[in-house]
Amino acid sequence: MMKKFRFLSLVMAGALCLTLAACGGSGDSGAGGTAANPDSGAAAPDSSAPGNGGSTPSGAAFKIGGTGPLTGGAAIYGNNAYHGAQIAVDEINALGGDIQFELRYEDDVHDAEKAGNAYNTLKDWGMQIFLGSVTSTPCVATSAESNSDHIFLLTPSASSTDVLGGVANPLTGTVDVPRKDNAFQMCFMDPNQGDASAQYIAQNGLGQKIAIIYKNDDVYSTGIYNSFMAKAAELNLEVVSTTTFTEDSQNDFSVQIGDAKDKGADLLFLPMYYTPASLILSQCSAIGYTPKFFGVDGMDGILTLEGFDTTLAEGVMLLTPFNADAEDERTVNFVTTYQERYGEIPNQFAADAYDCVYAIYEVLKSANATPDMSASDLCDLLMNGITGITFDGLTGEGMTWDASGAVSKSPKGMVIENGGYVGMD
């Protein structure tokens, strides 16, 4: 029997407390200091402290940890996830029920080795439930550690199939990483993003000749590319140019752009994060090349990139599960709270992390879990419980999980217009 949970009433119940907290400052003034904001130059979290900001309940609490890039070039992803999770934690704690949380995030600078060290810090702190790592490459490493330790993992945004394991490569059909049964995702898996992007382009006739530029030393980018190519072949999409780049060569895209232009590509598919995508947009504009651009969830955040001319992103299309401009009550409440606390519009990473905390809350509540339970016992409880719920969140309604760890929800097609996201459907 599936159970269906809605958390809108919880949001409203905590709204007054959150508004008062927002009036007093950023909302991250707890014992552990504040998360770094790449635009403000704020200090990084104090990883030696017992928690990295937000409210700390007075009684016993479940300890939830996560790692993410709180500093460095990918900091917008880590800070959005951390902040979104903190808002959910504070709302739940404000209800005063038996389920209380203490949240701690550690900075991994989007680096697998640093993520491993950050995970060990969280484990030493007593982490019972793991929000994983925000980006895919670090989360592949920390998901292996948490699997070995039997600590439940629900990542908001690390979409690589290797985070979960047990997924066949869409091009080879082989399973390279065994299933990590403790690991689940709130975000779309890379194959889902590649499949959905190819289908969306084909169904809407967005491009006759497609060029792809992807990052071949990144599991996120290559995973989406592989699944896109498999689906493109099935749908008879014409891919006329496929070029790559690496971490060390992501400043000059003249060769890749030139190949796409010379071959008459009228749509560029960019399965990558927003920083290299912003350079591609700028360099295409500089030579007068104006194809359509189609991205994935890593593109979310490009409008807040410091120094980027956002007019260059006009008309960019992407698939994302969250629209901050939506007018439903819970999205409006979340976006308002986020803006009051952090002075910016939340992206998909914030919304996914917020949903992660509430999904965990619902399972713990339904199972009458207590914070004195071991991480291993909680892992068993959460693994069994999450596959038995249907969850309505900011990033989708009717979300479900199966034993694969992947979430089932529908992406939304968005286009950037007048400096904001507009639904294409």
Write up what this structure looks like.
The chain is α/β, with parallel strands linked by helices. The protein has two domains: 3-188 and 325-410, Response regulator (Rossmann fold); 191-320, Response regulator (Rossmann fold, 3-Layer(aba) Sandwich). The protein is 39% helix and 18% strand. The protein has 13 helices and 16 strands. The chain has helices spanning 8-13, 15-23, 75-95, 112-125, 136-149, 161-164, 190-203, 219-235, 254-262, 274-286, 329-342, 348-366, 375-386; strands at 3-5, 62-68, 101-107, 129-133, 152-155, 183-185, 210-215, 239-245, 267-270, 292-295, 317-320, 389-393, 396-401, 407-408, 412-417, 420-423. β15 and β16 (420-423) form a beta hairpin. The longest helix is centred in the first third of the chain and has 21 residues, at 75-95.
Topology:
Layout: E1 3-5, H1 8-13, H2 15-23, E2 62-68, H3 75-95, E3 101-107, H4 112-125, E4 129-133, H5 136-149, E5 152-155, H6 161-164, E6 183-185, H7 190-203, E7 210-215, H8 219-235, E8 239-245, H9 254-262, E9 267-270, H10 274-286, E10 292-295, E11 317-320, H11 329-342, H12 348-366, H13 375-386, E12 389-393, E13 396-401, E14 407-408, E15 412-417, E16 420-423
Parallel strand pairs: 1-12, 2-3, 2-4, 4-5, 5-6, 7-8, 7-9, 9-10, 10-11
Antiparallel strand pairs: 11-15, 12-13, 13-14, 15-16
Helix pairs in contact: 2-11, 3-12, 4-5, 7-8, 12-13
Q: What radius of gyration results from the CA coordinates?
A: 21 Å
Query: If you consult CATH, what is the topology of the largest domain?
Result: Rossmann fold
What's the total helix number? 13
Overall body shape = globular
Report the end-to-end length measured between terminal Cα atoms. 33 Å
Biggest sheet: strands side by side, in what order? 8-7-9-10-11-15-16
What is the assigned CATH homologous superfamily of the largest domain? Response regulator
Low-confidence stretches: 1-55
Strand percentage lies at 15-25%
Based on DSSP secondary structure assignment, what is the total number of beta strands?
16
How many separate structural domains?
Answer: 2
Overall average pLDDT? 85
What is the element string, with H for helices and E for strands?
EHHEHEHEHEHEHEHEHEHEEHHHEEEEE
Secondary structure category: alpha/beta
In CATH, the architecture of the largest domain is 3-Layer(aba) Sandwich
Helix percentage: 25-40%
Oligomer: single chain
Largest sheet: number of strands, sense, barrel closure = 7 strands, mixed
CATH class of the largest domain: Alpha Beta
